[in-house]
Amino acid sequence: MALLTPEWTALLYLVAAVCFILALKGLGSPRTARRGNLIGALGAVIAMIVVFLSTELDNLALIIGVIAVGTVIAVPASRMVKMTQMPQLVALFNGVGGGAAALVALLELEHSISLGAYLAVAFTVLVGAVAFSGSVITFLKLQELMPTRPIVFPGHAAVIVLVAMVGLAAAVIIVLPESTLAGLGLALDAVEVKAIAAVVGLVVGSLLGVLLVLPVGGADVPIVISLLNAGTGLAVAASGLVLGNTLLLVAGTLVGASGSILTREMAKAMGRSVAGTLFGAFRGGSSAGSTAASERPVRSSSADDVAILLGYANRVVVVPGYGLAVAQAQHTMAELAQTLEAKGIEVVFGIHPVAGRMPGHMNVLLAEANVPYEALAEMDEVNPQFKTADVALVVGANDVVNPAAKTTPGSPIYGMPILDVQDARQVVFLKRSMRPGFAGIENDLLYDPKTTLLFGDAKESLTKVLGAVKNL
C-alpha cells in the first residue's frame, strides 16, 4: 500500500522540480555552483524517496540491492576521479542515463496502448541508445584509450544514413497501430513485432551513436558530450511520458534544454557549427591535424630567466590550460600570482570558454586555489589587455592561443575565437614538450622571436619560477 496520497506525491514532486531549477540557476556562477549542486542533490533525494513512498513496488529487496551496489561503485569512483578526468566522468554518467532511459522504454513497451505512448517509446529507445554508445566513445577518446583524432572509413557517411533509415523504420513499426500490423498477415502477433522492432531500434541506435562520434576529434569532443547530454535529457523526458511520471518529464526537459544551450555556446566559442562539429571530417574540416613536431628552432629558457621577465613587468596575463590541471599546479600558480602582486605587478588570468576539457574547467580549478574571482577575466574582457601586457604567461594551453585560428584558412581550428597572447610584448610558454595540443596541430607562436619556452612539468616549473621571483 502506498504511504503517500497522489496529492502529496504531486506536491513533493513539485518541490523536487523547483530544486532542480534552482540547481541550474546556482550552477550558472562559480560563486554559487557548490550550493546549486547540493540543492540539485537534495531534489534527487526527495524524488527517490517519493517514488518509494508513493508506489507499490515489486521486488523491493532487489531494487534496494541494486541501489546499494551502484552506490558502492559510484561513491569511491567519484571521490577518486581527478579534476582533469571530470569530463570523462560526465560522459560516463551521461551515457548511463541515456542507456537506462532506453531500457526502461523497452520494458514498458508492452504496457503502452496509445499512439503518444508508442511515439515516446520509439524516441526514447533510439535517442537513449545513441546517447549511451556515443558517450562511451567520447569517454574512450578523452581517456585516450582510443585515438583522439577523427576516425573515418570509406563509405562512412553512407553507412550513417543507412543505419539511421533502419532506425527510423524500426520506430515506424513501433508506432503503427496493432490492427495495421495484424493485417499484414505476419507469423508473429503485433505485440511481438513491436518488441522485435524496439530491440532492433536499441541495437541500431547504439551503432548510430558510435558512427556519429568516431569522426569527431580533438577539441570538438567536449561539444559532443554536451550534445549527447541534451539527447539524454530528452530521452529521460520521453521516458517520463512512457511511465506517466511528471518529475521525469520536468527533469529531462531541463537537462535537454540546458544541454542544447550549452552545446550551442560551446560550438560558438570554438567557432564551429554543431553540424560542422559532427560532420566536418567528411569534408576535411575536422579538428584533425598533424601531430608531428616541427624541426624549427625555438628559444628555450631557464626558470631564472622567466622569473626576471615576470619580476620586472608591470602587467602579466596568465593563460591557464589543461597542462596546468594535469600537473595540479593551480596552488603554485596562485602563490606566484600573489608574490608578483606583492611586488606591485598587476596579474590577470585570461580564461578561454573551453580551456581545459569543459566550460568552467579553469574557473573551478583556480577557485580551488582561492584565486579571487575578480582576477579571472573572460576572453572578450582580457583580449584588449594583451596589447598592454608586458608578459603573457601560458601554462599548459596551446589550441586556445594558436594564431592559426585567425591566420590560416586551411587550419582545422580556423575561425575559433582565441586569446590574443601574440599581442603581448613577451610570451612565455610552460610546456612539457613540443607536442601539439589536443586538436593535434602545431602552434607557430612557439617559434616567434618574442616567445620563450620553459620545458618541464608545470608544477615543477612554476615552483622554480616562484623561488626565483622571491629571490629577486
Task: Tell me what you see in this structure.
It is elongated, with a radius of gyration of 26 Å. The chain has helices spanning 6-26, 33-54, 60-80, 86-107, 115-142, 156-175, 178-182, 190-213, 221-243, 246-269, 274-279, 303-311, 322-326, 330-342, 361-368, 379-382, 404-407, 458-470; strands at 315-320, 346-351, 376-378, 391-395, 426-431, 451-455. The chain folds into 3 domains: 1-80, no CATH class; 94-283, no CATH class; 303-470, Rossmann fold (3-Layer(aba) Sandwich). It has 472 residues and is an alpha/beta fold. Strand 2 (346-351), helix 15 and strand 3 form a beta-alpha-beta unit.
| Overall tally of domains | 3
Category from helices, strands and their pairing: alpha/beta
Largest sheet: 6 strands, parallel
Rg from C-alpha positions?
Answer: 26 Å
Total E-strand runs = 6
